[in-house]
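Example 5.3 — Reverse transcriptase
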Amino acid sequence: MSGCTLYIALDLVDGYYQILMRESDIPLTAVSTPSGMLWEWLVMPQGLSNAPATFNRLVTQLFRPLRTFAQTYFDDIFVHCRAEGGQTAMEVHLRHLRRVFEVMRANKLYANIDKCVFAAEGIKVLGCFVSRVGVRADPGNVKATAAWPTPRSQKDLRKWLCLAYYLHKYSAGYAELARPLSDLLKKDADWVWEQQHQDAFDSIKASLQHAPVLALPDGNMPFSVVCDASDYAIGCALLQRDDEGHERVISFQSRQLKAAERNYPVHDKELLAMKYALVNSSLGHKALCDLH
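Solution (predicted structure tokens):
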């Protein structure tokens, strides 16, 4: 999606129900009703153990020939385009849309028009917003995190940390900020909310509220990583220069050190941070590169 200026988001209506059951499998879906009658599914119902994999495999295979400009995730189809080959972005947009619709028509896949977005400058993709300028966190998730009241128990804190961790790629040094809070969740830890915990709680909120717009990776351009280590955590950032030569962050990653790792000398912690950066940078951004 890097460099694209127009986006489309399509939502397949009642996704599972668009797949017919194999005739020999129909009796296996029978359910008994209070009247004593048996009802059998003619289409794939929700609840079958292999239903998600079956549906996702179908959609992925159908749109694989179009993956240079159309990606899928279950019942969502994301299409992106830019001006190319002497055509404007809108002309390319219409050409891509026609090819996607041709695949849908040939395979009798139907979209929910009320949930579809066409010719947009940005769309929501898997919990974040993607546009020409990059990737930004869902404002709704950020607002929910910032509005969360001070936790009163381990259960409350665990819920909030799960929500905050979902956005951790937008926060530099998240693991270091969250360390005092993580200590409260240890098995034998007493629940005593002190000033250091409130400071950590507020710092994470502030970090997410001022989260930067992350860059979309360009597979044709070189990447760079920076890493660092402290007494309790290691972290890194995956970077890439844009067309104007400005270095932009693609993703932040960090984790807390294990008990044994805290005893490492400084240079070993730095080497551990370098290894962590290289492993996470080579694997962590592949999903975004596939959207390129």
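Remark. The chain has three domains: 6-124, 137-209, 224-290.
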